Amino acid sequence: MLPAGYFFARVYFDVDPTVDVVVFGHTHVPGYKDFTGYNRPKIFANSGTWVDDNTDDPNNTATFALVESTHEGDAVHVLKCLGDGKVEDIVPVENDHIRRA
């Protein structure tokens, strides 16, 4: 069974074809999914959770999503804060329309 966020992301993509990225959170499990079947690739990203004690996904606490849009394209990352100002790219996303920064 897919997380509910996947269903809602598809609804956003179907209602407004200009939407390329949907970001949800609060499921405590970071991740992403590519959606095909549109005129260009679509991305669903889940930011996970910022809490320090994540019982749903103990290896991934202090996670967040970063979406950067430029004239060259969009970059989507799900990152984990490691402390001391350092982050780790735990879910990199790249396809024909979404590009790594």
Secondary structure elements and pairings:
Elements: H1 4-15, E1 21-24, E2 31-35, E3 42-46, E4 63-70, E5 73-83, E6 86-93
Parallel strand pairs: 1-3
Antiparallel strand pairs: 2-3, 4-5, 5-6
Folded structure, characterized:
This protein has 101 residues and is mostly beta strands. The chain has one domain. 12% of the residues lie in helices and 41% in strands. The protein contains 1 helix and 6 strands. The strands form 2 sheets. Strands 1-3-2 form a 3-stranded mixed sheet, with helices on one face. Strands 4-5-6 form a 3-stranded antiparallel sheet, with no helix packed on it. Strand 4 and strand 5 (73-83) form a beta hairpin. The longest helix is centred in the N-terminal third of the chain and has 12 residues, at 4-15. Residues 95-101 have low confidence and may be disordered.
Number of strands: 6
N-C termini distance: 32 Å
Spans of 5+ residues with little confidence (pLDDT < 50)?
95-101
DSSP helix fraction? 10-25%
Q: Which keywords apply here?
A:
101 residues, three-stranded antiparallel beta sheet
Provide a quick synopsis of the model.
The chain has 101 residues and is mainly β.
